[in-house]
Amino acid sequence: MSKRTLIASTVVGAFVLGSSTVSADPLNALHKEEAKIHASAAKSQEKINNLYEQSQELLAEYRQTVDETENLKVYNDYVATLVADQEEGIASLQRQIDDIEGTKRGIVPLMFRMIESLEKFIELDVPIKYEERKARVERLRDVMANSNVTVSERFRQVVEAYMVELEYGSKIDAYQGKLDYNGTEIAVDFFNLGRTALLALSLDQKNAFMFNKDTRSWEKLGDEYLESTVKAVRMARKTLPIDLIKLPIKAAE
Predict the structure, then answer these.
(1) Which residues form the signal peptide (predicted)?
(2) Structure pTM?
(3) Domain ranges for the chain
């Protein structure tokens, strides 16, 4: 090549190289800006995603709060109904408490009259377990004089005593004790057929007695009733099967 051509080629090459260098700088800057834009967009999208998730969580919490509010409203209405009912019950109890003194003033004299009537009835009745019944009346009097016993407990015991008296007239029973026959005390087995008949059998089973309601005294039975009285005592104690026996029963008037 000629020197002129070589110089021209060198100039052209330098110009092209310079142009390439100049063109590459803006392109790199453009790529960098684009990368920054993408990175910024990614961060923005991440923020959007986070905000969306937070909004969904808040929405769920809001819905739960609304449901709980409705449930609480229903429950509060229910509780208000219960409170109103309890207040009515309290008011009723208060009225009863206010009246209790008046009730006491009426029931205490009633109990004393019941005890007196019970004592008189025992004295006039067939003397079935007489000592036990008299002791029960005395316990009732002690209860009435005891300030530590409530009125309700006193009344319960008085009614219980009446229930025991009621049972004497509806069951067959046998028990040991002593009777006074013509001034002589005799150990016997008592037998009562309700309140219909009260008999006694000496422990040696040689004598039988009957309580006479009219004379309020014990009478000796004939030997024809001895075997029946022995059987009656054994049947009452369930050592002998129930069977028909001959007993001295006073005819109804």
Answers:
(1) 1-24
(2) 0.57
(3) 104-167, 172-236
